[in-house]
Amino acid sequence: MSHPDRAGDETSTDDDAASQTTEDDPQVPERTEQAPPPPPPPSVAPTTNGRERPHYELRHTMRGHTSSISAVKFSPDGTLLASCSNDRVVKIWSPFTGELIRNLTGHSKGLSDIAWSSDSVYLASASDDTTIRIWDVDTGITTRTLKGHQDFVFCVNYNTTSTLLVSGGCEGDIRIWNAAKGKCTKTIHAHLDYVTAVHFNRDASLIVSCSLDGLIRIWNTTSGTCLKTLAEGADAICAIRLWDYQTSRCLKTYQGHINLKYCIAACFSVTGGKWIVSGSEDNKVYLWDLQSREIVQILEGHTDVVVAVATHPQQNMIASASMESDLSVRIWADRGGQ
Protein backbone atom coordinates (compact mmCIF):
# COMPACT_ATOMS: atom_id res chain seq x y z
CA MET A 1 0.00 0.00 0.00
CA SER A 2 1.25 3.51 -0.75
CA HIS A 3 1.81 5.58 2.35
CA PRO A 4 3.03 9.15 2.92
CA ASP A 5 6.68 9.78 2.24
CA ARG A 6 9.44 9.59 4.81
CA ALA A 7 11.71 12.60 5.29
CA GLY A 8 13.62 12.37 2.04
CA ASP A 9 14.27 9.32 -0.13
CA GLU A 10 16.45 6.48 1.08
CA THR A 11 18.71 4.07 -0.73
CA SER A 12 19.95 0.82 0.70
CA THR A 13 23.69 0.85 1.27
CA ASP A 14 24.89 -2.24 -0.57
CA ASP A 15 28.50 -2.80 0.41
CA ASP A 16 29.85 -3.27 -3.11
CA ALA A 17 28.01 -0.33 -4.60
CA ALA A 18 28.82 1.98 -1.72
CA SER A 19 32.51 1.13 -1.94
CA GLN A 20 32.52 2.34 -5.53
CA THR A 21 31.41 5.85 -4.64
CA THR A 22 34.65 7.19 -3.28
CA GLU A 23 36.76 6.96 -6.40
CA ASP A 24 36.21 7.57 -10.08
CA ASP A 25 35.56 4.41 -12.05
CA PRO A 26 35.06 5.21 -15.75
CA GLN A 27 33.16 2.63 -17.73
CA VAL A 28 34.41 3.74 -21.17
CA PRO A 29 38.18 3.92 -21.87
CA GLU A 30 39.67 6.94 -23.58
CA ARG A 31 40.03 6.62 -27.35
CA THR A 32 43.40 7.29 -28.97
CA GLU A 33 42.41 7.57 -32.67
CA GLN A 34 44.62 9.73 -34.89
CA ALA A 35 41.81 11.46 -36.78
CA PRO A 36 38.85 13.04 -35.02
CA PRO A 37 36.05 10.47 -34.90
CA PRO A 38 32.71 11.26 -36.57
CA PRO A 39 30.07 12.74 -34.28
CA PRO A 40 28.56 9.93 -32.21
CA PRO A 41 24.93 9.07 -32.83
CA PRO A 42 22.47 10.00 -30.08
CA SER A 43 22.56 6.43 -28.75
CA VAL A 44 26.12 6.86 -27.45
CA ALA A 45 26.14 10.49 -26.35
CA PRO A 46 28.64 10.68 -23.48
CA THR A 47 27.91 12.29 -20.17
CA THR A 48 29.95 15.30 -19.11
CA ASN A 49 32.38 13.05 -17.22
CA GLY A 50 33.22 10.85 -20.23
CA ARG A 51 30.94 7.91 -19.48
CA GLU A 52 28.31 6.76 -21.94
CA ARG A 53 24.74 7.56 -21.08
CA PRO A 54 22.23 4.76 -20.64
CA HIS A 55 19.60 4.32 -23.35
CA TYR A 56 16.73 2.47 -21.78
CA GLU A 57 13.65 1.80 -23.90
CA LEU A 58 10.24 0.41 -22.97
CA ARG A 59 10.03 -3.33 -23.68
CA HIS A 60 6.87 -4.50 -21.88
CA THR A 61 3.84 -3.00 -20.17
CA MET A 62 2.15 -5.45 -17.80
CA ARG A 63 -1.33 -4.87 -16.43
CA GLY A 64 -3.47 -6.82 -14.01
CA HIS A 65 -3.25 -5.15 -10.60
CA THR A 66 -6.49 -3.42 -9.63
CA SER A 67 -5.16 -1.02 -6.98
CA SER A 68 -1.94 0.95 -6.42
CA ILE A 69 1.27 -1.06 -6.86
CA SER A 70 3.71 -0.67 -3.98
CA ALA A 71 6.82 -2.72 -4.89
CA VAL A 72 8.55 -4.57 -7.73
CA LYS A 73 11.52 -6.91 -7.22
CA PHE A 74 13.56 -9.07 -9.60
CA SER A 75 14.45 -12.55 -8.38
CA PRO A 76 18.19 -12.91 -7.61
CA ASP A 77 18.61 -15.36 -10.51
CA GLY A 78 17.02 -12.79 -12.82
CA THR A 79 14.33 -15.09 -14.24
CA LEU A 80 11.27 -13.62 -12.52
CA LEU A 81 9.79 -10.30 -11.45
CA ALA A 82 7.41 -9.98 -8.50
CA SER A 83 5.02 -7.10 -7.91
CA CYS A 84 2.68 -6.40 -5.01
CA SER A 85 -0.24 -4.08 -4.59
CA ASN A 86 -2.97 -2.66 -2.43
CA ASP A 87 -5.22 -5.23 -4.17
CA ARG A 88 -3.77 -7.88 -1.74
CA VAL A 89 -2.14 -9.87 -4.57
CA VAL A 90 1.49 -10.68 -5.40
CA LYS A 91 1.98 -11.21 -9.13
CA ILE A 92 4.88 -13.17 -10.61
CA TRP A 93 5.90 -12.15 -14.15
CA SER A 94 8.43 -13.06 -16.78
CA PRO A 95 10.51 -9.90 -17.28
CA PHE A 96 11.57 -11.14 -20.71
CA THR A 97 8.11 -11.75 -22.20
CA GLY A 98 5.87 -9.68 -19.91
CA GLU A 99 3.75 -12.79 -19.29
CA LEU A 100 1.90 -13.22 -16.00
CA ILE A 101 3.04 -16.54 -14.54
CA ARG A 102 1.18 -16.76 -11.23
CA ASN A 103 -0.82 -14.90 -8.60
CA LEU A 104 -0.03 -15.36 -4.89
CA THR A 105 -3.21 -14.77 -2.90
CA GLY A 106 -3.94 -15.09 0.79
CA HIS A 107 -3.40 -11.72 2.47
CA SER A 108 -6.56 -10.04 3.73
CA LYS A 109 -5.35 -6.45 3.26
CA GLY A 110 -3.05 -4.52 0.95
CA LEU A 111 0.68 -5.16 0.53
CA SER A 112 3.56 -2.72 0.97
CA ASP A 113 6.71 -4.74 0.22
CA ILE A 114 8.15 -8.03 -1.03
CA ALA A 115 11.58 -9.68 -0.77
CA TRP A 116 13.14 -12.69 -2.51
CA SER A 117 15.22 -15.37 -0.83
CA SER A 118 18.74 -15.61 -2.27
CA ASP A 119 17.97 -18.89 -4.07
CA SER A 120 14.90 -17.33 -5.79
CA VAL A 121 12.69 -20.10 -4.35
CA TYR A 122 10.82 -18.12 -1.69
CA LEU A 123 9.22 -14.69 -1.55
CA ALA A 124 8.27 -12.78 1.60
CA SER A 125 5.40 -10.29 1.51
CA ALA A 126 4.56 -7.55 4.03
CA SER A 127 0.92 -6.63 4.51
CA ASP A 128 -1.44 -4.21 6.18
CA ASP A 129 -3.07 -7.30 7.73
CA THR A 130 -0.07 -7.15 10.15
CA THR A 131 1.45 -10.41 8.85
CA ILE A 132 4.35 -11.45 6.67
CA ARG A 133 3.82 -14.46 4.42
CA ILE A 134 6.60 -16.62 3.00
CA TRP A 135 5.59 -18.13 -0.33
CA ASP A 136 6.96 -21.04 -2.31
CA VAL A 137 6.89 -19.18 -5.62
CA ASP A 138 6.81 -22.26 -7.83
CA THR A 139 3.73 -23.75 -6.15
CA GLY A 140 2.10 -20.51 -4.99
CA ILE A 141 1.66 -21.97 -1.51
CA THR A 142 2.23 -20.03 1.73
CA THR A 143 4.84 -21.95 3.72
CA ARG A 144 4.89 -19.66 6.78
CA THR A 145 2.76 -16.83 8.15
CA LEU A 146 4.75 -14.56 10.49
CA LYS A 147 2.66 -12.86 13.18
CA GLY A 148 3.83 -10.32 15.74
CA HIS A 149 3.57 -6.78 14.37
CA GLN A 150 0.82 -4.73 16.00
CA ASP A 151 0.22 -2.52 12.95
CA PHE A 152 0.72 -2.53 9.17
CA VAL A 153 3.96 -4.21 8.07
CA PHE A 154 5.62 -1.71 5.75
CA CYS A 155 8.93 -3.34 4.72
CA VAL A 156 10.72 -6.68 4.72
CA ASN A 157 14.10 -8.10 3.63
CA TYR A 158 16.11 -11.32 3.83
CA ASN A 159 19.74 -11.55 4.88
CA THR A 160 22.23 -12.81 2.27
CA THR A 161 21.93 -16.46 3.33
CA SER A 162 18.13 -16.17 3.69
CA THR A 163 18.19 -17.62 7.21
CA LEU A 164 16.80 -14.41 8.69
CA LEU A 165 14.13 -11.88 7.81
CA VAL A 166 13.90 -8.33 9.08
CA SER A 167 10.68 -6.35 8.96
CA GLY A 168 9.56 -2.85 9.83
CA GLY A 169 6.09 -1.82 10.96
CA CYS A 170 3.98 1.28 11.17
CA GLU A 171 4.12 1.10 14.98
CA GLY A 172 7.86 1.89 14.71
CA ASP A 173 9.13 -1.60 15.54
CA ILE A 174 11.74 -3.71 13.77
CA ARG A 175 11.36 -7.49 14.08
CA ILE A 176 13.98 -10.13 13.30
CA TRP A 177 12.66 -13.55 12.29
CA ASN A 178 14.01 -17.06 11.90
CA ALA A 179 12.96 -17.63 8.29
CA ALA A 180 12.81 -21.43 8.47
CA LYS A 181 10.70 -21.54 11.64
CA GLY A 182 8.72 -18.35 11.04
CA LYS A 183 9.42 -17.25 14.62
CA CYS A 184 10.29 -13.76 15.82
CA THR A 185 13.65 -13.82 17.61
CA LYS A 186 13.94 -10.12 18.50
CA THR A 187 11.80 -6.98 18.58
CA ILE A 188 13.46 -3.57 18.51
CA HIS A 189 11.45 -0.45 19.37
CA ALA A 190 13.31 1.45 16.71
CA HIS A 191 11.47 4.59 15.64
CA LEU A 192 8.66 6.94 16.61
CA ASP A 193 6.93 6.66 13.23
CA TYR A 194 6.52 4.26 10.30
CA VAL A 195 9.62 2.19 9.57
CA THR A 196 9.86 2.68 5.81
CA ALA A 197 12.87 0.47 4.97
CA VAL A 198 15.02 -2.18 6.67
CA HIS A 199 18.08 -4.01 5.30
CA PHE A 200 20.80 -6.31 6.58
CA ASN A 201 24.41 -5.62 5.67
CA ARG A 202 26.28 -8.36 3.84
CA ASP A 203 27.15 -10.56 6.84
CA ALA A 204 23.90 -9.72 8.68
CA SER A 205 25.79 -8.32 11.65
CA LEU A 206 24.07 -4.95 11.15
CA ILE A 207 20.60 -3.71 10.24
CA VAL A 208 19.90 -0.30 8.75
CA SER A 209 16.46 1.23 9.16
CA CYS A 210 14.84 4.47 8.16
CA SER A 211 11.58 6.06 9.15
CA LEU A 212 9.11 8.86 8.67
CA ASP A 213 10.68 10.33 11.81
CA GLY A 214 13.51 11.45 9.51
CA LEU A 215 16.16 9.21 11.05
CA ILE A 216 18.39 6.48 9.65
CA ARG A 217 19.61 4.07 12.30
CA ILE A 218 22.24 1.31 12.38
CA TRP A 219 21.53 -1.62 14.71
CA ASN A 220 23.54 -4.56 16.03
CA THR A 221 21.55 -7.58 14.85
CA THR A 222 22.50 -9.80 17.81
CA SER A 223 21.98 -7.36 20.67
CA GLY A 224 19.45 -5.01 19.11
CA THR A 225 21.58 -2.06 20.23
CA CYS A 226 21.44 1.17 18.23
CA LEU A 227 25.02 1.84 17.11
CA LYS A 228 24.48 5.04 15.16
CA THR A 229 21.79 7.54 14.13
CA LEU A 230 22.06 9.59 10.94
CA ALA A 231 19.84 12.65 10.72
CA GLU A 232 19.24 15.24 8.05
CA GLY A 233 19.34 18.92 8.87
CA ALA A 234 16.26 21.02 9.42
CA ASP A 235 16.64 22.42 5.88
CA ALA A 236 16.35 18.97 4.27
CA ILE A 237 15.42 19.12 0.58
CA CYS A 238 13.79 16.64 -1.78
CA ALA A 239 16.80 14.51 -2.63
CA ILE A 240 18.30 11.04 -2.54
CA ARG A 241 21.35 10.83 -0.32
CA LEU A 242 24.22 8.35 -0.36
CA TRP A 243 25.76 7.90 3.08
CA ASP A 244 28.96 6.45 4.44
CA TYR A 245 27.49 5.01 7.61
CA GLN A 246 30.92 4.42 9.17
CA THR A 247 31.80 8.12 9.10
CA SER A 248 28.19 9.42 9.20
CA ARG A 249 29.01 11.52 6.14
CA CYS A 250 26.61 12.18 3.28
CA LEU A 251 28.76 11.44 0.21
CA LYS A 252 26.39 12.35 -2.61
CA THR A 253 23.06 14.06 -3.12
CA TYR A 254 20.89 13.40 -6.17
CA GLN A 255 18.19 15.92 -7.13
CA GLY A 256 15.76 16.69 -9.94
CA HIS A 257 12.87 14.32 -9.33
CA ILE A 258 9.75 15.08 -7.29
CA ASN A 259 9.04 13.28 -4.01
CA LEU A 260 6.97 15.21 -1.51
CA LYS A 261 4.07 12.93 -0.65
CA TYR A 262 4.76 9.22 -1.16
CA CYS A 263 7.37 6.76 0.03
CA ILE A 264 9.52 6.19 -3.07
CA ALA A 265 12.62 4.03 -2.72
CA ALA A 266 15.68 4.28 -4.96
CA CYS A 267 18.15 1.59 -5.98
CA PHE A 268 21.58 1.04 -7.51
CA SER A 269 22.17 -0.14 -11.07
CA VAL A 270 25.67 -1.59 -11.56
CA THR A 271 25.25 -4.03 -14.48
CA GLY A 272 26.44 -1.47 -17.04
CA GLY A 273 27.22 2.04 -15.95
CA LYS A 274 26.78 2.85 -12.28
CA TRP A 275 23.48 4.62 -11.87
CA ILE A 276 21.03 5.59 -9.15
CA VAL A 277 17.43 4.84 -10.20
CA SER A 278 14.25 6.26 -8.67
CA GLY A 279 10.61 6.82 -9.40
CA SER A 280 9.04 10.24 -9.11
CA GLU A 281 5.75 11.99 -8.49
CA ASP A 282 5.86 13.54 -11.99
CA ASN A 283 5.15 10.02 -13.39
CA LYS A 284 8.75 9.46 -14.56
CA VAL A 285 11.76 7.30 -13.73
CA TYR A 286 15.05 9.14 -13.15
CA LEU A 287 18.59 7.81 -13.63
CA TRP A 288 21.59 9.62 -12.16
CA ASP A 289 25.28 8.97 -12.71
CA LEU A 290 26.43 7.68 -9.33
CA GLN A 291 29.70 9.63 -9.38
CA SER A 292 28.81 12.92 -11.09
CA ARG A 293 25.23 13.11 -9.74
CA GLU A 294 24.11 14.17 -13.23
CA ILE A 295 20.69 13.07 -14.51
CA VAL A 296 21.60 10.80 -17.43
CA GLN A 297 18.14 9.61 -18.52
CA ILE A 298 14.47 10.16 -17.73
CA LEU A 299 12.04 7.36 -18.62
CA GLU A 300 8.57 8.53 -19.59
CA GLY A 301 5.43 6.48 -20.17
CA HIS A 302 3.67 6.03 -16.83
CA THR A 303 0.53 8.13 -16.30
CA ASP A 304 0.63 8.29 -12.49
CA VAL A 305 3.19 8.48 -9.69
CA VAL A 306 6.02 5.95 -10.07
CA VAL A 307 6.36 4.58 -6.54
CA ALA A 308 8.53 1.52 -7.18
CA VAL A 309 11.61 0.66 -9.25
CA ALA A 310 13.96 -2.31 -9.38
CA THR A 311 17.09 -3.20 -11.36
CA HIS A 312 17.89 -6.58 -12.86
CA PRO A 313 20.78 -8.44 -11.16
CA GLN A 314 22.61 -9.34 -14.39
CA GLN A 315 21.18 -7.38 -17.31
CA ASN A 316 20.68 -3.71 -18.07
CA MET A 317 16.98 -3.85 -17.27
CA ILE A 318 14.73 -1.74 -15.03
CA ALA A 319 11.23 -2.46 -13.74
CA SER A 320 8.93 0.35 -12.64
CA ALA A 321 5.42 0.43 -11.24
CA SER A 322 2.79 3.08 -10.78
CA MET A 323 -0.25 4.09 -8.80
CA GLU A 324 -4.00 4.18 -9.06
CA SER A 325 -4.78 5.72 -12.46
CA ASP A 326 -1.97 3.82 -14.21
CA LEU A 327 -1.59 0.43 -12.45
CA SER A 328 1.06 -0.82 -14.88
CA VAL A 329 4.39 -2.54 -14.38
CA ARG A 330 6.85 -1.54 -17.09
CA ILE A 331 10.07 -3.22 -18.17
CA TRP A 332 12.80 -1.04 -19.68
CA ALA A 333 15.95 -2.39 -21.32
CA ASP A 334 19.10 -0.57 -22.42
CA ARG A 335 19.36 -0.96 -26.19
CA GLY A 336 23.12 -0.53 -25.94
CA GLY A 337 23.51 -3.21 -23.26
CA GLN A 338 21.85 -6.22 -24.81
What does this structure look like?
It is a single chain. The protein is mainly β. The protein has a single domain, classed as YVTN repeat-like/Quinoprotein amine dehydrogenase (Methylamine Dehydrogenase, Chain H, 7 Propeller), CATH 2.130.10. The protein is built from one helix and 26 strands. A hairpin with a 4-residue loop joins strand 18 and strand 19. The longest helix has 5 residues.
Quick recap:
It contains one helix and 26 strands. By secondary structure, the protein is mainly beta.
Question: Could you say what the CATH topology is called?
Answer: Methylamine Dehydrogenase, Chain H
Assigned CATH class:
Mainly Beta
What is the string of SSEs from the N terminus onward?
HEEEEEEEEEEEEEEEEEEEEEEEEEE
Kindly state the number of beta strands: 26
What would CATH call the homologous superfamily?
YVTN repeat-like/Quinoprotein amine dehydrogenase
Second-tier CATH architecture: 7 Propeller
SS strand fraction:
over 45%
Radius of gyration: 20 Å
The first-to-last residue Cα distance is 34 Å
Biased composition (Pro residues): 35-44
Region (Disordered): 1-51
Domain WDR5-like beta-propeller: 61-234
WD repeats: 62-103, 104-145, 146-187, 188-229, 273-298
Keywords:
338 residues, mainly beta, Methylamine Dehydrogenase, Chain H, four-stranded antiparallel beta sheet, 1 helix, WD repeat, Beta-prop_WDR5-like, WD40_PAC1
How are the secondary structure elements laid out?
Layout: H1 15-19, E1 56-63, E2 69-74, E3 81-85, E4 90-93, E5 100-104, E6 111-116, E7 122-127, E8 131-136, E9 141-147, E10 153-158, E11 164-169, E12 173-178, E13 183-189, E14 195-200, E15 206-211, E16 215-220, E17 226-231, E18 240-244, E19 249-254, E20 266-269, E21 275-279, E22 284-289, E23 295-300, E24 306-311, E25 317-322, E26 328-334
